[in-house]
Write a structure and sequence with these properties.
Elements (H helix, E strand, L loop, with lengths): L17 H10 L2 H27 L6 E5 L5 E6 L2 H12 L15 H12 L7 H15 L4 H11 L10 E4 L15 E4 L5 E10 L6 E8 L10 E6 L10 E6 L11 E12 L6 H37 L1 E2 L2 E2 L4 H33 L4 H32 L1 H4 L6 H8 L9 H15 L2 H14 L5 H21 L3 H6 L1 H28 L3 H11 L10
Bound molecules: decanoyl-CoA.
The site of decanoyl-CoA has 29 residues, from helix 5, helix 7 and helix 12.
Length: 543
Amino acid sequence: MNFVQPAPQLADPYRDDRVLQAWLARVLPEARRRAAESDFIALADYARRAYARQTTSTPSEPALTRWDVWGHRVDRIELTETWREGPAIASKYGLVADGHDRSLGEFARVQQFAKVYLYHAASAFYSCPLAMTDGVATALRSASNTALRERVLPHLLSRDPATFRISGQWMTENAGGSDVGGSETTARRGADGTWRLNGRKWFTSAINAEVALALARPEGNPAGTDGLALFCVETRNADGAWNGITLDRLKDKLGTRELPTAEIHLHDTRAELVGDTAHGVRAIAPVLQVTRLWNAFGSLSTMARCLALTRDYAHGRMAFGKPLVEQPLFADSLAGWEAEFEAAFHLAMEVALLLGRVESGTGDERDAALQRLLTPLAKLWICKLGVRIASETVEAFGGIGYLEDSGIPLLLRDAQVFPIWEGASNVQALDFLRALEKNGMEPLVDAVDGWLETADGTVSGHDAEIVHGAIRHADTWLRDHARDVGDLQAGALRLGMTCARGVAAALLARHAAWARLHQNDSASANALRRFCAHGLDSIIEAV
Ligand code: MFK
């Protein structure tokens, strides 16, 4: 009998995750952690079951039936099994509700995002509508249309599958994905006071959503971003028929294939104003702040899955007389990917903590400024890193990693969406400049100094110097180029990457010091050394 390599086994995504466990032990109060633990365990169990199902079944995709046999236009969507399970999982474990639960105080967002991290890789991208639902709930919380808020919000935050509803977010049109100001959809108010939307939305993720926020230009408003207003659409009429919406087709995508993303036309679609008759982009910005963080956590969850499978395989796969994990070069590469992942984890969790502090009123202005500055940085760097780690995973598995039915190529195809969704990397880099314009670099520099100070004496002075050096260089570069918008924009990606990695390293240093002191664990300090050695500063002077 020829040798047959056993398939990799998925370790427990909660119990066996050192990085998550140590972070929770450091930050989440013991009582809160104990209260949430059964949900963490249940989500990890679900992830393992979903993985077992994925590796033993034929992949399925949503199907759109546009016409019934008699010739009626029906636009019916059949969802996949994982998607049909989504509402029950999401509501039961509070994947949206936790983030808005005032009783959780400043920890609402970290508890929620720990769950998102555990669920995403098992969700077949049901996490996408949950992200949008969370963002829309965040925007609606401060909407001046109180009747709309009171009617819709309880459904988005429901913990009961019978009343739980999801929301979409319709921004992208043919004229622009990043440049939303060119949107062509119009809004007209009828004699009865009802708003009607007409136009075409080109990428509507999760078209099965019951609600959506849509940008449209009220007739008579000026061209450009400011002339757009934000509307809420209930996608179905009371009888279940579409509310003036036709589904032209489902998108044929590289990844996220269980997610029904549609091109649609709006024909006198009934809609309600969320607030003002203009400034819709400003009104939808809170959605972006939240969904961008979901992207970072989706990417982290994918990386955790990639690394867990790679680790298991490396222990079981023999090459040249010993397991891969004992081959010095393979072990060195794996440790490098793990170090990048760990630093990324600390950055994303810090942003979640800051968001929770700001929303619960326990944070101050510094927290708000830092949350605004770090959100695009986390999205920018962590989503790009996810593609790299997924690509390394394909390579680590060799030929098998290139085969569809190993499930590994799926990880790479799916990871590629994160840098694109909710504003591509360049949009994030430019958004970082927008945030700097309002908040300056000082909150970030001060925070990094504070985190490194906490770690002083525990992590190596050499590592601390590398972090300081990168952040100081970013600060100086910013001052030197402040007057030239062209230079600033051209360097924004390099500046953003440098700041993201510098901040992540400082956060990892703070954690490493704690782990040494309280858990006698040097793993994070070792990860920091590698992370810093990979280099933090990617700013180069333009020639
Ligand atoms: C598991 C993960 C799941 C994730 C699922 C998500 C699936 C969703 C799929 C999608 O990708 S939906 C499409 C998402 N599209 C985008 O993200 C659009 C990308 N483009 C941008 O982000 C542009 O920067 C933006 C359209 C927001 C603004 O461009 P403009 O036209 O140059 O606007 P401008 O004048 O700079 O900003 C308008 C206002 O918004 C300003 O406020 P004021 O009116 O008060 O001056 C800005 O300050 C404010 N603003 C813009 N970005 C902001 C912001 N405020 C806060 N935070 C931001 N990030």
